[in-house]
Specification:
alpha/beta, three-stranded parallel sheet, two-stranded antiparallel ribbon, 5 strands, 35% helix
C-alpha cells in the first residue's frame, strides 16, 4: 500500500495551504488587509470643525432627485430590515418622510414597494427610488421596474458590484436562513420558496 505524500517545507513560500483551515486563515489575512487599506484611505480625510460661529441662519437643505430635502442625507437600502424590527422598511419610510429625506427601497425588502411607499406617504411627502441588481430573469426584472414606476419611485439605483450573488460563507457555515414569515415580495419570493 502506497503511503500518502508528505508535504516538504519550502522556505521560499511564505504560506503553505494544505487544508480548508489554512485557506480560511489566508483569506482572513487578505480580507483584514483590505479593511485596513480602506480604513487608512478613509482616515486621510478630516471634517474641519468650526466652532463659535453664528448658526442662526444655516440652511442644510439641498435638491436631490428634483426634490428639496431638509438635510443632505438620503437613506440607502438594506435588505431584511424586518429581522431587526417587525415594522422594518415601514418604519424607515415613515422616519424619512418625517425628516424630509429620500429613501431607497431594497431589492431584498421584506415588504412590497407599494406598501413601503404608502407607509411613508401617510406621514408626509417622500421620494423613493428602487435599488436593484441585474437579474437573469429579465421578465421578473421588468415587472419589478414597472411596479416601482407605477408606485411612484423616481429612479433605479442599480447595484453593479455584485454581477453574481456571492456565497457568504459565514452565513452558509451558520446555516443562516431568512426567518420564517419573512418574504421578499419585490422578488416574488414567499417564505416557502426561500426555504425550499
Amino acid at each position: 500500500m502506497a503511503s500518502l505524500p508528505v508535504p516538504v517545507p519550502n522556505q521560499s513560500v511564505k504560506q503553505v495551504i494544505l487544508s480548508i483551515a489554512d485557506l480560511e486563515e489566508a483569506a482572513s489575512a487578505k480580507l483584514n488587509e483590505g479593511i485596513r487599506e480602506n480604513s487608512a484611505a478613509f482616515n486621510k480625510y478630516r471634517i474641519r470643525t468650526r466652532v463659535l460661529r453664528d448658526i442662526s441662519n444655516v440652511n442644510t437643505s439641498t435638491n436631490v432627485l428634483r426634490r428639496r430635502i431638509a438635510f443632505p442625507l438620503c437613506v440607502l437600502s438594506a435588505g431584511l430590515q424586518a429581522m431587526a424590527h417587525p415594522t422594518g422598511e415601514f418604519a424607515i419610510s415613515r422616519a424619512c418622510a418625517k425628516r424630509g429625506i429620500n429613501m431607497a427601497i431594497s431589492f431584498f425588502s421584506n415588504y412590497s414597494i407599494e406598501h413601503v411607499r404608502k407607509a411613508g406617504l401617510e406621514v408626509g411627502p417622500l421620494t423613493h427610488v428602487i435599488q436593484m441588481y441585474s437579474m437573469q430573469d429579465r421578465v421578473l426584472q421588468k415587472r419589478v421596474i414597472q411596479r416601482a414606476e407605477a408606485a411612484g419611485c423616481t429612479a433605479i439605483f442599480l447595484t453593479t458590484d455584485s454581477p453574481v450573488l456571492s456565497v457568504r460563507y459565514n452565513e452558509w457555515r451558520n446555516d443562516f436562513r431568512t426567518p420564517e414569515g419573512l418574504e421578499f415580495p419585490i422578488l416574488e419570493r414567499t417564505t416557502e420558496a426561500i426555504w425550499a
